[in-house]
Write a structure and sequence with these properties.
There is one protein chain. With about 525 residues, the protein is an alpha/beta fold. The chain has 3 domains: about 140 residues, Rossmann fold, CATH 3.40.50.980; about 210 residues, ANL, N-terminal domain (Rossmann fold, 3-Layer(aba) Sandwich); about 120 residues, ANL, C-terminal domain (GMP Synthetase, Chain A, domain 3, 2-Layer Sandwich). The protein is built from 14 helices and 29 strands. The strands form 7 sheets. Strands 2-1-11-10-12-13-14 form a 7-stranded mixed sheet, sandwiched between helices. Strands 15-16-17-21-20-19-18 form a 7-stranded antiparallel sheet, covered by helices on one side. α1 packs across α3 and α5 packs across α6. It is globular and about 65 Å long. About 45% of the residues are buried. The C terminus is likely disordered.
């Protein structure tokens, strides 16, 4: 399905630019050809339709080629966060039943420590410029250079995917457990991309994408939307506030793929006489509440929708009809959206409750969580997809997001599993138990705070625990705040009462909370050691 869309675009836009990177550009025809060659190479190497193939690549041309190649081969992509290592990386590969993996050479050293726990991982394809036997050494599996697959035939494989077939398994943050793999049909990925075009009126426009392509926002709303819209997308390695506007001018982009934290960062930078000297029209997604200051300074609109990996874009505003603080009206062509109480009874305007969604069209929502029928049944109870987010709607049907009801934390564009942070912190020999929560951030999303109970007689400093976590977790998961406590609050059923932690002090920050960013900005001093 996805591969067929590319093939049709390659017929009508063959020589037109589709992808741009700092080092060059690729036409629709060139991307189509590369996808065919890699797909043929994957099939020749033993990958079969329906196989699950992990993809751990940075923002690079090969990331796009491989996603299309897997669709052409009928295989299922499992995009992997490039910051993952250790148990987080093992968890994704193992629970998704990955049999093959495409990995960048710069991440390959993360595999040997976990490969013995991955008996189902049979094939490795490595993005590298080095000769075989150098960068491929020590991976514990036979490895092939990704570039060696490009020698295969230029014709498309004779594999046809349906809109109901799986295009990907996308891992989302866990709530009371590890992250789960949302099964994504081709229809969900493509309708999400189409809806982002419709609500942003960006057909044929240049998209600037500083977001990772292993996330749905960069992959669907960015790359696939450019494909459907017949436009082009400029992909850079990461967001940089200092080079953002120079990039926009260099690529002549009209739409920016963004996360909420990006806009406050740009607004907080010193004003210049070039603030309106650019081609940018829209930030997607931005907070609608920031639309006015963004427009006043940069002449750019901030467009907010309500999105999720599992359900695409359930709410959005008609283009130009944005309402302050709102994420839009129900995307009624695709979904029914409601606000419900704890018993799943629908609530009226102005009443806060959980945001729930159900599809009006087939296959435009996740098929469930791979290998987790329990989590699937719980999330889809009473014929609603339960988002775990709290919101309300006004009399005109505009929806407003309030907060997360779940145990997930949103930090600088990443959905973080509190469980994953706690699991690593609890492995420290001085730690008895921990609780991770999200606390307010000056950048519109959240910061991570970790409450820590030490073992009797054990001692550990704030710095020592942070150093331990930096070795185990991606940088975006490492807590900004730490607080050592004698015990964690409990519910009557002995669960940790995180709502009490969030309510303490100033939205979770108390006089005893240690801030590593504030600490790093001070002159070096001896830090107190805490514990019993």
């Amino acid at each position: 399905m996805l591969g067929e869309v590319l093939a049709r675009r390659a017929l009508t836009h063959r020589t037109e630019t589709f992808l741009e990177f700092r080092g060059g550009s690729f036409s629709y025809g060139e991307v189509d050809l590369a996808a065919n060659r890699i797909a043929q190479g994957l099939l020749a190497a033993g990958v079969r339709p329906g196989d699950h193939v992990a993809v751990m690549l940075p923002n690079c041309p090969e990331m796009v080629f491989v996603i299309f190649a897997l669709a052409r081969a009928g295989a299922v992509a499992v995009p992997v966060n490039t910051a993952y290592r250790g148990e987080l990386l093992r968890h994704v590969i193992a629970t998704a039943d990955v049999s093959s993996m495409v990995i960048d050479a710069s991440y390959a050293d993360r595999l040997p420590p976990i490969v013995s726990a991955l008996p189902g991982l049979n094939r490795l394809f490595v993005r590298t410029d080095e000769a075989p036997g150098i960068s491929l050494h020590g991976l514990g599996r036979p490895a092939t250079r990704l570039s060696d697959l490009m020698v295969h035939g230029a014709s498309a494989p004779e594999v046809k995917a349906s809109f109901s077939d799986l295009q990907a398994i996308m891992y989302t943050s866990g709530t009371t457990g590890p992250s789960k793999g949302a099964m994504v049909p081709h229809a969900l990925a493509l309708t999400c991309a189409e809806d982002s075009l419709k609500f942003l009126d960006r057909w044929g426009k240049k998209i600037y994408c500083p977001l990772p392509l292993f996330h749905a926002a960069g992959l669907w709303d960015g790359m696939m939307a450019a494909l459907l819209g017949g436009g082009s997308i400029a992909v850079v390695e990461r967001f940089s506030a200092s080079r953002f506007w120079d990039d926009v001018r260099y690529f002549n982009a009209q739409v920016t793929m963004s996360v909420f934290a990006m806009i406050p960062i740009l607004l907080n930078r010193p004003a210049t006489d070039r603030d309106r000297d650019h081609s940018m029209e829209i930030f997607y997604m931005g907070k609608s509440a920031l639309d006015e200051p963004l427009y006043e300074r940069f002449g750019v609109r901030s467009v907010e929708t309500y999105t999720s990996t599992e359900a695409g874009i359930p709410t959005a505003s008609p283009f130009g009809e944005w309402r302050h603080g709102s994420c839009g009206q129900a995307n009624s062509e695709r979904f029914e959206v409601g606000i419900v109480d704890e018993h799943d009874r629908l609530l009226g305007p102005g009443e806060p409750g959980e945001i729930v969604v159900r599809p009006r069209q087939p296959w435009v929502i996740t098929s469930g969580y791979y290998g987790r029928p329990d989590a699937t049944a719980h999330t889809f109870r009473n014929m609603w997809f339960h988002t775990g987010d709290r919101g309300w709607r006004d009399d005109d049907g505009y929806y407003y997001f309030l907060d997360r009801m779940s145990d997930a934390i949103r930090r600088r564009g990443e959905n973080i599993s509190a469980f994953d942070i706690e699991s690593e912190a609890n492995l420290h020999p001085a730690v008895l138990e921990t609780a991770a929560i999200g606390v307010p951030s000056e950048l519109e999303e959240e910061e991570v705070k970790l409450a820590v109970v030490c073992r009797p007689g054990a001692e550990v400093s704030h710095e020592e625990l942070i150093t331990h976590l930096k070795l185990k977790l991606p940088s975006f998961m490492v807590p900004r705040y730490l607080e050592f406590v004698d015990e964690l609050p409990r519910t009557p059923t002995d669960k940790i009462a995180k709502y009490e932690l969030r309510a303490a002090g100033d939205s979770g920050i108390t006089a005893a909370t240690w801030d590593r960013e504030a600490y790093a900005s001070r002159p070096a001093t001896d830090q107190p050691v805490v514990g019993d």
